[in-house]
Design a protein that fits this description.
113 residues; alpha+beta; two-stranded antiparallel sheet; 5 helices; 2 strands
Amino acid sequence: MKFDVENFTKTYKGTKWYIEENHFKEFLKDIENEELIKNLVFCNDYLSVPPIAAYVKYRSDLYHDKIEKKEKLVLGACFGYLFKFAGLGYTDSKSVWVGDKTTDIKNASYFIK
């Protein structure tokens, strides 16, 4: 699995600002953790829990307050790229209600093969 940052910013316009942020750097480190990826895939495939929802719970040390709208969108784009373009083989997504009170994430997508 390869998360190509340059291709990510071309695929998801308006995300370039995020690549210098600490949260993005932590995301890149975290996706190297095979156990975490397996858990995110399990939550996505079997529980229909969007990866962003599972991830912000896993990284509650980083995501312990409300997240600004633009960061929620770009973090969602990170997972969209990861699941659809970085080798996990997903081709579609479905938006569902998350309603996370801590981060204020209301809707998010899980991915479909």
